Amino acid sequence: MNNPELSIVIPLYNERDNLIPLEDKLEAELSKLNLSYEIILIDDGSVDGSAHLIESLQKHNPRIRLIQFGHNHGQSAAFSAGFKAARGQIIVTLDADLQNNPADIPLLLEKMQDYDVVCGWRHKRNDPWIKRVSSIIGNAVRNKLSEEEIADTGCSLKAFRRECFDKVKFFKGMHRFFPTLMKMEGFRVTQVKVSHHPRLHGESKYNIRNRLFSSFLDLMAIRWMKKRQINYDIIKED
Ligand code: UDP
Ligand code: MG
After folding, report:
1. Residue 205, ligand 1, Cβ within 6 A
2. What is the C-alpha to C-alpha distance for residues 177 and 130, in angstroms, rounded to an integer?
3. Which tens digit of pLDDT belongs to each residue from 74-131?
4. Domains in the chain, ordered, with CATH?
5. Which atom of ligand 1 is nearest to the CA of 73?
6. CA separation (Å) from 127 to 25, 93, 99, 120, 197?
7. Ligand 1 centroid vs 164 CA: distance in angstroms?
8. 154-167, pLDDT tens digit by residue?
9. CA–CA separation, 237 and 232 (whole Å)
10. Strand order in 6-12's β-sheet?
11. Which residues are paired to 64 by β-bridges?
12. Model-level pTM greater than 0.90?
């Protein structure tokens, strides 16, 4: 399909057992929308046979596209490759583990009529308590230091107008700061409450140790960038 209206972009790392239910749920929801769409699965160096399973799904589903990394490069790199490949006017991102619910995609699309970016907000997290607490603290610190008001930047379920990616600089960890980066470019950003589900198969790839330090450094960089953003008012220009 050359120019679908919607691109679904999904990074995955060792998510084999989630892929068949993911495809089923996506197809069940997307087929109701009356929109043309593609599903871009970015295999971020899985070693559990995820890519092989995706190739077999592609045999009956031509809307599935596979981008396969040779090694694990991280979720931001996978998003980045997915955005470059996406051909839709609207790009929706979500996780592969079905913690996000494809049934919430219409909520985001509805808001896209008035906004350029719509961020999902997992108002009832279905995660172990340590993750819930660290996320509350993380979001509070992030909002304070970056003077931001996004309740849940860690939620992958988001919708973007494709133009958003023409201006924003990609870097490792950027997926946690999309709302701020896009607001800085003048895009209209909002959030909508979405459901959140326990992980049924496979394991979480993140813990406090592998996330805290690097995301704090990223936050400092974002804070700096925001404070140093060039801003002026012209009252005359001949
Ligand atoms: N993921 C990825 N590359 C990585 C780590 C994670 O593509 O290096 C994917 C993962 O497979 C999942 C999504 O990013 O689809 C979110 O990861 P996870 O569910 O482990 O995060 P959590 O929900 O536990 O915060
Ligand atoms: Mg998850």
Report:
1. yes
2. 22
3. 999 999 999 999 999 999 999 999 999 999 999 999 999 999 999 999 999 888 888 8
4. 6-227 (3.90.550.10)
5. 8
6. 21, 20, 9, 16, 8
7. 23
8. 899 999 999 999 98
9. 13
10. 64-68, 37-43, 6-12, 90-93, 158-161, 117-122, 189-194
11. 39
12. yes
